């Protein structure tokens, strides 16, 4: 009888132990390449813009496929937010990855024009992508991860031929 009592108590303690394992892990976003593709001067009815291309690699660490409903973020260059990034509807295979290219048209302001002109001349700058991820796990729900820094690095490219 003592053994049965001990087994029931041990089973009760195990059942009450906190679960430390996460059920779902956030996808991992990495900027594989960032490039300034154009600088456009203002024209009547159109503001000045910087064309930026982000090549993203998104990894799914989960053992089940994930539909990434949305990546929303802010592109920050040299500590200054220069624009917003939104990518939607990505299918991630179980423990796999996908790649996505995001083409951004970012407004040039007095504060950001010098940054982009420096990049166009080949100057090295630091950047980061801060934001959130919203996954769609079907019946498990749509968890939102973040906000946090999704990716960061150094941006240096060959000078653009502007004229």
From TrEMBL:
Residue ranges constituting the Water stress and hypersensitive response domain according to the UniProt record: 34-151
SUPFAM superfamilies from the UniProt entry: LEA14-like
Domain of life the protein comes from: Bacteria
GO biological process: response to desiccation
Name this polypeptide is given: Water stress and hypersensitive response domain-containing protein
């Amino acid at each position: 009888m003592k053994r049965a009592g001990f087994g029931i108590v041990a089973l009760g303690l195990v059942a009450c132990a906190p679960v430390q394992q996460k059920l779902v892990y956030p996808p991992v976003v990495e900027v594989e390449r960032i490039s300034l593709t154009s600088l456009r001067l203002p024209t009547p009815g159109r503001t000045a813009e910087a064309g930026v291309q982000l090549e993203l690699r998104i990894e799914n660490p989960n053992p089940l496929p994930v539909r990434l409903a949305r990546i929303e973020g802010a592109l920050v260059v040299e500590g200054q937010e220069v624009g917003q990034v939104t990518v939607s509807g990505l299918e991630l295979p179980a423990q796999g990855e996908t790649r996505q290219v995001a083409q951004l048209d970012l407004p040039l302001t007095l504060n950001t024009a010098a940054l982009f002109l420096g990049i166009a001349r080949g100057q090295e700058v630091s950047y980061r992508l801060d934001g959130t991820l919203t996954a769609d796990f079907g019946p498990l729900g749509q968890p939102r991860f973040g906000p946090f820094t999704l990716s960061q690095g150094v941006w240096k490219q060959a000078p653009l031929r502007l004229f």
